[in-house]
Specification:
homodimer, about 400 residues, Aspartate Aminotransferase, domain 2, seven-stranded mixed β-sheet, four-stranded antiparallel β-sheet, 14 helices, globular
Chain lengths: ~400, ~400
Amino acid sequence: MITRTEAQAMDQADKLAHKVREFSLPKGVIYLDGNSLGVLPLAAVERVKHAVEIEWGRDLITSWNKHGWFELPRKAGNKIARLIGAAPDSVVVADSISVNLFKVLSAAVAKRPGRKIILSDSGNFPSDLYVAQGLASFMADGHELRVVEPEAVMDAITEDVAVVMITETDYRSARRHNMKEITAQAHEKGCLMIWDLAHSAGAVPGQLMDVNADFAIGCTYKYLNGGPGSPAFVFVHPRLQNEVLPALVGWWGHAKPFAFGQQFEAAEGITRMQCGTQPMLSMQALDAALDVWADVDMNELYAKAQAMCALFTELAEQRCGANGISLFGGRDFSTRGSHVCLKHEQSYAIMQALISRGVIGDFRAPDLMRFGFAPLYNSFVDVWDAVEHLAQVLDGKLWDTAEFRERKAVT
Amino acid sequence: MITRTEAQAMDQADKLAHKVREFSLPKGVIYLDGNSLGVLPLAAVERVKHAVEIEWGRDLITSWNKHGWFELPRKAGNKIARLIGAAPDSVVVADSISVNLFKVLSAAVAKRPGRKIILSDSGNFPSDLYVAQGLASFMADGHELRVVEPEAVMDAITEDVAVVMITETDYRSARRHNMKEITAQAHEKGCLMIWDLAHSAGAVPGQLMDVNADFAIGCTYKYLNGGPGSPAFVFVHPRLQNEVLPALVGWWGHAKPFAFGQQFEAAEGITRMQCGTQPMLSMQALDAALDVWADVDMNELYAKAQAMCALFTELAEQRCGANGISLFGGRDFSTRGSHVCLKHEQSYAIMQALISRGVIGDFRAPDLMRFGFAPLYNSFVDVWDAVEHLAQVLDGKLWDTAEFRERKAVT
């Protein structure tokens, strides 16, 4: 069994270990929920203060130009592009992930007028399914969402499918779909392909251009650390950008927004995926958070993610297997995202006990505990200590503060 | 002609004069653009700092409950409700004004399946027209946007119209439509009525329940001072809330969001008008900004707005009429919003000159200068001084700093 000292050695060898200094981590907490809400980057504190006091407070309306507010959605989009394997000027930050899904889904179904099926799978995040149901129900012309099991997706991609809408990384099992294979099959059958990268962006190397994806969406408040509810991103492949139009358009997607013309005229490129005015305080926080990624090699990051998931799983099985804990999802971490779900019938209570000890993960109904590992600020010792807490909770041990403090002092 | 001393006397008699102390106003600036971006409330500075450092930074994911993030859209909505004449629990804050318009417009057209016309007028803000065009174009079943002149709206409300979509206060002329008359006519003809309150909310007394409006939308970054791009609001009349469903639905509008069910099931009430996760830093700034309104009487506020508009117009005509300045829009300020547009063929240059002197209004193509008067923080002396600057610019006078400083010292 790997010892805490060995985990410390892994941290010492970790080339990403220094990145933690760019974040404000709460004291006494092992935060394994960065896949739900990423921690606060120090740069965001200063940026938001500047946005409030100088940009809003002092420069007011002139900030739209003076502080680049108008450009920010595209500027931030370009910072995300590299991380998700997108081309320059193919990503824009705006609105929520659901709103962006609606945009690309409506754009995609309009491009396949003869086909009525939107295909997804049961591993998709439910809200994506809701968006598709809402759109199909509104269209009231026979469009429908077809949901199959994740393993059945390839066979379900047939010539009656207009759009294949899949989340790469499952929010529970962390299973990653094979983007290349599914996208190729979608194109083979004449379907358009939408990828949801919510649990992928900032966790796994980007592949959008490599796999020739048509559309993608994702959120920025998880691994990208953009802050609570920070605006989401939307990607459209350059070959499609001027060929598609969402049902939801607006001022910011107009070719000449300040001409105030009465007729909508779509801007060229990714700009047309913008609609209304964006929340600039949240947008500035995100833009600052994205600067943290400038020197991050995504393959290096993913290697650390896999190593953390493997360490956590191995230790949890060794130390807690006898207490009814089991892994939910496979153990080939090269085909998975950066979180691990454990199954136990008392998962809700166990997670509450962990949280009260400062180990923050989350509970996913009915019986899963989810632990996210953010390679930029989680350490291997965090992983080790989290399992130690889990083992103590399962053993019904009271928390021995002195013992833990002594251990922490060693690090 | 009213003297500066008389304007000072008006400020001394103004019951709202003390409210300016709740804002952070930039030094040396007469800010007459609160109808574009409202100034920074002091409470927002502290609130955002707390949201960043304590809520995001320290409490992280637990803040969704601990700091009421989930409730915030409805809590802020209820603060807005009184200001716009809405019933409790009939307003929610979310997304942008364009996205909210898309929600209510799609919900409305779905309720009138036999009718194909969306009626609006040429005084509407162009982005609203774009949203309707985008929706109609997507539907591709004969739906179309019909745009008539503002004076022709009443006659154009006929039985082939599904939805009447009108902005109460014209963003240029400030002309207010008669909400009661138009809504009654819409209902008489079996149409649904959507009001856009972008230039009304926080400027004129609310009437939504009084006029029996079906839907309304509005933005919060103008007179409500919610900050740059702060999330917008959406109102649905209580009698309709459970009867309508937008094309755009999502997780936050689900009856049981945390059950993670695969089927969308709309929440009761206004909650279903929510879709995805909201930008919490911007949302917290807005919520703090709304507290400034708690003790504001909307009739008192509107009385001051009218008095400021009247003073500005009178002085501008008296002092600058000979220089080719004319009023764009009528002079019965009881039927207008809280801004005034002046027309001059050199409006662009004149506005630049004013801005360089610290008088901030905005230019609206092709030849308008727009001046917004925010009764919470603008004074009658601001109005007087703004016209003094305008007169000096038009007379080609250089700015006499010493003279102005002396004047300011008197206040």
